[in-house]
Amino acid sequence: KAKYLTKITDINKLYLENILNEGDIVVDATMGNGYDTKYLAQKVGKDGFVYSFDVQESALKSTEKKLKKENLEDRVKLVLDGHENMDKYIDKEVSCVLFNLGYLPRADHMIITKPETTIQAIKHSLNLLKPHGIISISIYTGHPGGIEEKNSIYDFIKDLDQSEFNVLESGFVNQINNPPQLVLIEKKKEYI
Ligand code: SAM
Fold first, then answer.
1. Which of 19, 45, 51, 79 ranks highest by number of CB atoms within 10 Å?
2. Distance between CA atoms of residues 126 and 166, nearest Å
3. CATH class given for the domain over 8-187
4. What residue ranges in 36-163 does DSSP mark as E strands?
5. Per residue in 105-129, pLDDT tens?
6. Does residue 143 line the site of ligand 1, with CB under 6 A?
7. Cα–Cα dist 149/141, whole Å
């Protein structure tokens, strides 16, 4: 059993378990090796759907393999494109958009998510979210460029109108070495 408060991905799941429902349409904005895509596909069930994005072909290959092993491939669309273009692929309201930022462990550490494209993708996500839908963003600052990305995300989210969005952060207060941060955004009503 995972320790509840050790990894930001596990903490995220404490929230997601109460947010995701069978039949939901959701987005994995950073597919990577597909752990999150597989988790989302299991949670939304056979009537749900997952759109999953990455700019690396190797990410699509390893995710496809994972999904096929579990017979989940029919409920997932794997897209080889940046999340900043998600609006070109999704024309339905979604319940949840997951971002797990930074680089893919055990792959090219130079391929990282970047401030401008991340913010663009968050803006698209705000538009695509249905009321009470959630954006979950796991943010890492230990790699070059990570702090800049975090700062631009915070500059953007701190100005979101509280009558339209709830914005929550979770973080480790007593950890050394650039602990990760989790940000959750709930859309309270229609966003114009
Ligand atoms: N969620 C993943 C998993 O379960 O394995 C891990 C994600 S990893 C920390 C971050 C991923 O974001 C990398 O695979 C990287 O290629 C991808 N990425 C970088 N820029 C991107 C972009 N503009 N759009 C979508 N994905 C991007």
1. 51
2. 12
3. alpha beta
4. 49-54, 76-80, 94-100, 129-139
5. 888 888 999 999 999 999 999 999 9
6. no
7. 8
Q: In this predicted model, what pLDDT tens digit does every residue of 60-98 receive, in sequence order?
A: 999 999 999 999 999 999 999 999 999 999 999 999 999
Name the residue of 96, 113, 119, 137 whose CB sits within 8 Å of the most ligand 1 atoms, as the mutation to test its pocket: 113
Domain residue spans in the chain?
Answer: 8-187
ipTM: 0.98
**Residue 30 in contact with ligand 1 by CB distance below 6 A:** yes
Outline where DSSP puts E strands in 30-148: 49-54, 76-80, 94-100, 129-139
Give the C-alpha separation, 86 to 79, whole Å. Answer: 9
Give the length of the chain. 192
